[in-house]
Structures are given as C-alpha cells and as structure tokens.
Amino acid sequence: MQTRCRTDSPVISYNVHGLNIRETYSRLLQDLKHYKMSIVFLQETHFQEGRASALKDRNFQFGYFSNNPDRRTLG
C-alpha cells in the first residue's frame, strides 16, 4: 500500500513584540489573513496577564497559549 502525504496548510512562525498594542495586533491578523496562513506560531508575545486568550479571530478556529507575564526571559 502506498501512502501519500500532501499538505495545503501554510505554516509560519513569527517572533513578535507589542501584541498588547491594538494596532500591532490588528496588523498581524491582516497579514495572516492576506497570506492565508493555516498554522501560526507566535513567539515572545509577552501578553499582559489575562490578555493571551484575547488573541482570537473568527478566521482562526483554534488557539493554544502558553504565557508567563511575570518574566521577560526564561533563558
């Protein structure tokens, strides 16, 4: 049996800063929609406490978050 694997799901990873700023957040969503991204990884977001779950949009069905608002670096 032959198995084929084909992906039509564009994936991107962004190292972002300033997503607590509404304009930056809006611009990010515009870019993701424009480039038709299916899977997006956001690093170094540094959301304020309680704000990570606010990163939602009707065009993106799922979101998973890991956030540490108390520390700027862990490395």
What is the structural class? Answer: alpha+beta
Helix content: 10-25%
Tally of DSSP β-strands: 2
How do the SSEs run, as a string of H and E? EHE
What is the strand arrangement across the widest sheet? 1-2
Please give the count of helices.
Answer: 1
| Uncertain spans | none
Count of the domains: 1
Note the gap between the termini.
46 Å
**Average predicted local confidence, pLDDT:** 75
Gyration radius, to the nearest Å? 15 Å
Largest sheet: 2 strands, parallel
Protein name: Endonuclease/exonuclease/phosphatase domain-containing protein
Organism: Pelobates cultripes
Short description:
This is Endonuclease/exonuclease/phosphatase domain-containing protein. The protein is α+β, with helices and mostly antiparallel strands and 75 residues long.
